[in-house]
Amino acid sequence: MNPSPASQLVVRFHKPVAAILAILTVAGGWLLFARGLKEDYRLEAFVASDDPAYERFQSFVEEFTSNEFAVAALHTSAPFDESVDALLVELNKKFETVENVQRCNSIASIPKALRTMLGDRLFSHPLLEGNLISHDRRTVAILLQMSAEDSGGEARRRSVGQMRDIVREFRERHPGVEIFLTGPYVTLIDMYAYVDQDLLVFSVLAFGLIVVTLWLVFRRIAPMLFAGFVGLSAIVITLAMTTALGIVSSLITQMLVILVVVLAVANCVHLAVAAEDAQATGDVDPDGRSRSVLSYMLVPCAIIMLTTAVGFGSVSISSIAPVRRFGMLMVAGLVIAFIGSVAALPLLVRWGGASKNAGHRLAQRALAWSADLALARRKHVVIGFLIVGVFMLCGGSRIQFQSDFVKNFRPSSEIRQNYNFIEEHLTPLGSTELVVKRHDGGAIVSAMTVRKGADIADALVEELPMVRRALSLRDALSLVLPGTIATDTQAAQACQLLRLIPGGADILRNFLNDAGDTMRINFRCVEGFDVQDKLAACEQMKHDAEEQFGSEYEVEVTGLYHFYSTLVDGLLRDQYRSFALAALCIAITLSIAFRGARMLVILLLVNFLPVVFCVGVMGWCGIPVNMTAAMMLSVTLGIAVDDTVHYVWRLKHEYAKHGDIERAIRDSHKSVGRACLFTTIVIACGFSILLFSRFLPTAYFGGLLAVTMLAALASDLWLLPALILTWPPFEKRVQPVIKPQSD
Question: For residue 309, what is the domain's CATH number?
């Protein structure tokens, strides 16, 4: 093969390019060490600032109460008494010293005047029973109202750390009392802590597993150094870009590191195998071999970089901020990895040496058997894959869309156990809010609005299975005015009287804003329902409230329960949109690279099958769609097409040489099939380590990618040749006729 101008250019300038990448890697490593990654621990980091659901939620928070809260609970063997009250007072005082704690609400913090006024009604009051004390009086809670923090950084970590220290100290001093710490403020920080810890552990494990895999494949140091340099430079430079540009990398760093490194190494494996095959040409000139390899490999590697970047880049249309940033950074990492692999290849060719790995012979026998199967049983292969595809499509209909934040953690985790304890003994932490205001901006408090708010709360508890309890302005006013509020004057007087009682103003502000023109009805909802059922319930709340209050009033629904549900619903829409965009762009790229409608149809069929397999595994195994899994379809398509491109590129080359499609398939299996097998092993091993992550979305992501990449390899080695033989996409070559010589 005559060297292409691009290959000659690469060989000519590969040393300065490789040197620049090495310098950028060192500089990027120093920047990461000196400044670290920018992280954001707020709920706001998940969404775009102009998201309507987020804007409604923020408006609610500003008018009523912060969404930043933690819950500490004491559980004793005996019902609440003076000794438990003393422990609660002690714990209350300790939590008040924690940074960012604005207020502690518990039975112990209720003013004596209010305690005296309530008397025996204290423990059975709706604001307390099920919120601050359990029905059996053996569990009491402290609600820690936290201040919002714009920077969203270390102060939050310190606050949670201080609370955990208090809990640990209290457990040591009072071994007979169980204490639990949970709530959105704590859970969010714990989630980031899990991801950060997993990043360190699994990055090291994945790197070690990749090193072992490369050694088993090549048994030489040079290919390992080649792949290591490319993978390390790609991820270090990408992460340094996030630091230099101030891009928040929370939640995505772990997947970004492993994906960039694994995909960079996989591309290097293809190039290393091609360089190894080039040694058989007998060309002793390293630069000549480099030009030969690059002349053949540069175009397919560029196509692969483009299609994979399209798969990841398509998720950048998501409304979820971490998903969007992940897509953009993956594209940057893939481009850097491509440049690095091409620039470092001549160095590998020069210093690589020959492979003597006996494992290659085992791979060759397995690949020869695969070729025989595809050639001899092509109809059976096509039918078999069709059956598997239909079965997996049926599984796809079973997919659920998870909006339960705490289910991102394993059942055995302390986070989930604490959350479940609070929900079982006290009240669900899922909060949905109905916000009611007058269209004319007038005062909202009247006997009618108090009564209708209470009626709606009671009715929806009975009607909606996910709603376990509801609180309204009536419950707050009943602290000072038990019974029915019959007149508007009584309602106004009750509000005024509640403000005069110590702590009463804070209680009233939970249900009535400072301006007095907006009222809140709070619904406590349990998890375990499909996201569409949750959104339907929220719509019913809004509809029933609008009917009750009439056209003079405006009703909105918000709260964390509703907010997370809309977030997951948006993920579902984003998944389909990004997959459609990725499929379209990849189809256009493949149609340009491999001209012919028949070949394009075959390529799309072969590469859609791993996507269908991924969906089916999610459905049959009960893996829900969450923030991470929502990227699976586009990412799977983008990665699965890589080996297909290499295989078809080689197949066309072999067919052009011999004109025999069956021989071309066998030769392709022996050469590029080996690289496809090795890269799949690298990818599957690299991703499978994520299965052990404590953060379930990461575990699902790694496991699904590992399994679907195996399905993609099966499609490339069996289905692709079977379809090409059944429906030939290449023009038949006419063999020259050799006439016998006359005597």
Answer: 1.20.1640.10
